[in-house]
Task: structure prediction
Amino acid sequence: MKVNIETSWQGVLEETFSEDYFVKLAEFVKEEYAHYACLPKGSEIFNAFEYTPFADVKVVILGQDPYPTPGHAHGLCFSVQPHVKPFPPSLKNIFAEIKQDIGTDFPENGNLVRWAKQGVLLLNAVLTVRSGLSRSHQGKGWERFTNTVIKKISDHKENVVFLLWGGDAKKKEKLIDPSKHLILKSGHPSPLSANRGYWFGNKHFSKTNQYLKEHHLDEIAW
Result:
């Protein structure tokens, strides 16, 4: 099965695309997009891979599923289109922690393509959603696909930083080899978790850069 995904990822995931579960997933997504308003746009479903080729991956941030609000999601977890104001609460808390951690002020917009181009894979566990219905495409096969992506990175690369925020993301730890990579865990940046003390002060952004520096890799301009 031919999937329109960035060339280097096509090679890494080629066998996956012909597996029965993925063929069924592709049919499900095709039907959903044909009959309902779904997000992100079809051409943006694999944007995380488009902006961060396999060889460039230095950091992996895991989200849950795309923002269900029209005009927000564009294929990168936590990221929104440049025009979206105010920032979604989780993204606002991410920027607040960055300011507290390394002193970088809030950016003009919430588009995280600038991170993706530096090697930060912004991967949602589920890559599509019905407009207005959060988690509506869960359990259809996306989780198996993105688990494969995480495992491929763990197996075939070294010195990648995995940022696992919240319960769902922490469950992915078993897919990652801690002897080759850095795993940083904390609560989710959503207000529910952050306001209870599980997010702020995790210093994940400075810790990530320190690890990259120690392994002679370019730090991320957060």
